[in-house]
Specification:
By secondary structure, the protein is mainly alpha-helical. The chain has a domain of 38 residues. It is 87% helix and 0% strand. The longest helix is centred in the middle third of the chain and has 36 residues. The chain is elongated, with a radius of gyration of 17 Å. GO terms for molecular function: amino acid transmembrane transporter activity.
Amino acid sequence: MGNAFLNRTVDGFLKIGAVGASKVAAEETYDCLKKGKFSKDKLEDALRKICKEGVYWGTTAGVYVGMEYGVERMRGTKDWKNAMLGGAITGALISAASGHRTDKVIGNAITAGAIATAAEFINYLT
């Protein structure tokens, strides 16, 4: 698209959104096979869940990738601290947008920062 920030954000949204949608599709397929029932209502419900989860996962990934890239550009360096800060900002934003209280927002920011940092360290090992 010509803009590195936009390219990375959209790429993260699409890739991880597809993962989230695939996860729900697999769960719903298993549920139908297990129960032995399939109906138009069940299909509509499954499609609604697939779209909702795909958008949620994609949005979260897009925000994270965008935040990490923004932090990298502001700091002028590419290291694990960008992942930590990007994860913490993303965790806080998603949590606040979900209507959580301040203590929960802070906890989610810390958790997301820790997960992003751990993923970055694991990525360095491979």
